Amino acid sequence: MIYLILSVLSSTLIFVVFKLFDVYKIQTLYAIITNYVVACTVGFFLYDGPVGVSDLTNKSWLIGPIVLGVLFIVIFNLMARTAQVSGVSVASVATKMSLAIPVVMGMLLYGERLSAFQIIGIALALVAVYLASIKEKHIRIERKALVLPLLVFLGSGIIDTSIQYFEEIHLTDQEIPVFSSMIFGFAALTGFLFIGIKSAKTPLKMNLKNLVGGIALGIPNYFSIYFLIRALRADILSSAAIFTLNNVAIVMCSTLFGILLFKERLSMKNWSGVALAIMSIILVALF
Length: 287
Prior knowledge:
The structure is a single chain. By secondary structure, this protein is mainly α. It has one domain (2-286). Helices cover 78% and strands 0% of the residues. It has helices spanning 2-23, 28-46, 53-57, 63-86, 88-96, 100-110, 116-133, 147-169, 176-198, 208-233, 239-262, 268-286.
């Protein structure tokens, strides 16, 4: 359970760092790419096995970090576009509601069984995520813009399901640091390709603030994945319960940090979401 708590805290710290980006006027794209380089480096420092090219290319899970790395960048940009077109709340809800995908896949692929209380808890979790994420008075999505949140929902769910698959089938305990590291490494390579194309029109403007912001983001970003995989391997709870608790606790903690650190105000719907989140955590974890 300690790994799950550490994963939630790491993910919540990501939220805090993103908020500070606004305060210190840090350019998100460049800091994001720096963060992937930092996260990749942290993983290689924690890995005590051989790190030669031939050692890594012979791994059965090599395709995993490549696909996940590309997905990380693509989904990030889709989330940003969704926030611009349909609002921040829509992007947040689409991302967090994707927990339904690994939950369903865990039951279909790995034969996981949930108690009646856990099923009720997961249903409450989905409602809680929706209510706690609403920051605008009304969420309106034009039919033609529906494809963006749908892609974010599917992409985020595929990322979680893929991590679950490689943890279940391919990874050993020793390989978790380098697997996590390579995900961020390929995300960084994809990001460099992206800004390389972009720089043909707009010159790159990397500065110290962006670099510091990327470092501050990269360390908790790495450990959010590292501790999530550790939690899945601990076999204390089913993966369905792990993903539910992880997502709901992140929403709840991020909301509370927003109140304490950034003086955010919550609506009655937001508070109802927090209350339902607590109920869902109790049902999923204790039953």
